[in-house]
Each structure stands twice: as C-alpha cells, then as structure tokens.
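Morning, I've got a small favour to ask if you have a moment. The fold is given in discrete form, as structure tokens running alongside the sequence. I'd be grateful if you could look everything over and explain what you see. No rush at all, and the record is pasted right below.
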Amino acid sequence: MTAKTPEQSKTTMTDLVLPSETNPLNNLFGGELLARMDRAASIAARRHSRRIVVTASVNHVAFNRSVPLGSVVTIEAKVSRAFKTSMEVFLDVWIEDRESGERTQANEAIYTFVAVDETGRPVSIPELTPETSLEKTRFDGALRRKQLSLVLAGKMKANDATELKALFE
C-alpha cells in the first residue's frame, strides 16, 4: 500500500445553524455538532483507507465557543495518524462572522475510526506521511494519545507506553 498524506483525506463540510438544531439559548446543540463532526471524520477516514469505516471512539471534544443560531459552521477533518487498522482523525470547527466573513475556531475534536471489510473485520490501511508542521505535531501526538487510551483502558501496561514515558524523562 502506498502511504498517503493528511491532505488526501481532507474533508470540509459547511452548513448553516437552523432553529430546529438549537437549544433554549439559541446555540447549536452539542449533540448536533458531534453528529456533524462524526460524518466529516468518517468521510476523511474513508478517503484515507478507501474502506468501510466505523467510529471506534471520540477521544476528545472541546466545546470552546458556542455556535449561535444562523451561524455558518465549517468542519475540517483530516486523518492525523494511521495505525495498522485504525486511524485518528483531527477536526477543527470554525464559525464565520456574518458581517466580516472572518472565521474563528470554535471547537475541535479527535475521533478514532477502524477500517473494516464487508463482514466487519478490521483490515490494514495505508500509512500516513505528514507534510506541514501542524500535521507533524498532530501525527506525533497521536501515538501518545493512543498509548494513554490503552493504558487507561487496561490494555497496555504503563511501563510499555514508551511515548508517554518519554514525556517525563
């Protein structure tokens, strides 16, 4: 399999926040944003793997800013690291000022997907070669995040988490 770049998986979804999608404060429901992010991330993961993908976990979500009714919301998703059958997808959520058009980052998230065959069995995926400094930073951090998740889930011993140990040496 030929390695791919994060740019090859890039997925951009832009939509408007409608009244039926808001809470009593007229801000986008968090669950609605999670669903939108899941769709964008799944497309990015599928573009990287060219396989059926399933959401394995939502590793991190930061609701840093509310997203008001009427906002134009853009979600950008890219695979940040590929492992044997799984891949981490990093998402950035932007809102656009109605008058100036200026974009502000509102939220971010990290999802993990697994590529599967038609029977649901995990399948191997291409490696990822980061190009930009941001892509390299996210790529390097992905292994630490994966090891932390495995340690917390009891699937890896802390002593075996080499990337995490390196942070404290």
About this structure: The longest strand covers residues 103-116. Strands lie at 11-16, 52-63, 72-82, 86-96, 103-116. The mean pLDDT is 95. The longest helix spans residues 30-49.
